[in-house]
Amino acid sequence: MTNIIHDKPEQLEQIRAGLLQGEIVYAVYDCIGVGTGFVGITNMRVILQDKSFVGNKLAIVSVPYKNIRSVSMLSNKSMMGRFASTSSIGIDTGGSIKEADFRGDDKARHAHDLILWNVLTTK
C-alpha cells in the first residue's frame, strides 16, 4: 500500500519505525484533546500515542485485535446528520477503554470501521 491515509507525515513515520515484520499500515490519524496524540491502524493492531502521563512523558500503546472486545463511535451531532465538528472512538480492551477524539465525523467513522473489520476477521 503506497497511498496510506494519514494526517501528519511525522506520525506516519513514527508508526513505520515501530512496525513488526509483515505488518502493514492502513491509516494514521491525528487526534485532538488531551490524552491521545494519534491513532495508527495496521493489519495486526491499533497503535495509540498516549500523552496523558505525568511529566510530559509519551507512551506508544499497542492493542492487538484479539484483545479488543468492542469498538464504538461517538459523535457530538446525530449520526444521521450531515455535520459533526468532533467525534470519538472508544476501544474496549476488557480492562479499560481507550478513547481517541477526531476532527469531524469522517475520520472517526473510517477508523471505527477499519478497526471493527479487523476485529471481526482476525478472531
Automatic annotation (TrEMBL):
Pfam families in alphabetical order: bPH_3 (PF14470)
YokE-like PH domain span: 23-83
Gene3D superfamilies named among the record's database cross-references: Bacterial Pleckstrin homology domain
Classification via InterPro entries: PHb_sf, YokE-like_PH
Protein name according to UniProt: PH domain-containing protein
Lineage, highest ranks first: Bacteria, Bacillati, Actinomycetota, Actinomycetes, Micrococcales
